[in-house]
Amino acid sequence: MEIEVLESEKNRLKFKLKGETHTFCNILNEELWNDKDVKAAGYRIEQSLEDEPIFILETDSKDPKKVLSDAISRLRKQFKEFESKITKLIK
């Protein structure tokens, strides 16, 4: 995955997620909304077979880059916990 920042302002971030689809974008979008400082978060994909997702993230007071970084950190933790549970289950 590659992130390309399209716009960056004090409380607003617009970025493209290269190589991603609705699967990851839905998970990321939901996790972004878990932050109480998120005012708006969403993404769009023009044509799902060709275009890359474009996210818009707006916050009340936090730096949107920090909010994005924190959301990704929380997702990493959740994925590791899930992997651990699956590994124990299949052994």
Stretches where pLDDT falls below 50 for ≥5 residues? Answer: none
CATH class: Alpha Beta
Average predicted local confidence, pLDDT: 94
**From the coordinates shown, what is the CATH architecture?**
2-Layer Sandwich
Annotation field: number of helices: 2
Measured distance between first and last alpha carbons:
30 Å
Largest sheet, strands/sense/barrel: 4 strands, antiparallel
Question: What is the helix fraction of residues, given as a range?
Answer: 40-55%
CATH superfamily: RNA polymerase, RBP11-like subunit
Count structural domains.
1
Report the structural category.
alpha+beta
- Counting DSSP E segments of at least 2 residues, the number of strands comes to 4
Q: Please tell me what the overall shape is.
A: globular
Estimate the strand proportion: 25-35%
* CATH fold annotation: Gyrase A, domain 2
Radius of gyration: 14 Å
H/E order of the elements? EEHEEH
Q: Strand arrangement, largest sheet?
A: 1-2-4-3
Produce the secondary structure layout.
Layout: E1 2-8, E2 12-18, H1 22-32, E3 38-44, E4 54-59, H2 64-90
Antiparallel strand pairs: 1-2, 2-4, 3-4
Helix pairs in contact: 1-2
Short key terms for the protein model shown above:
Gyrase A, domain 2, 91 residues, alpha+beta, 2 helices
Plain-language structure description:
There is one protein chain. With 91 residues, the chain is α+β, with helices and mostly antiparallel strands. It has a single domain, classed as 2-Layer Sandwich (Gyrase A, domain 2). 42% of the residues lie in helices and 30% in strands. It has 2 helices and 4 strands; from the N terminus they run ββαββα. It has a 4-stranded antiparallel beta sheet with strand order 1-2-4-3, with helices on one face. Helix 1 crosses helix 2. It is globular and about 50 Å long. The N and C termini lie far apart (30 Å). 18% of the residues are buried. The mean pLDDT is 94.
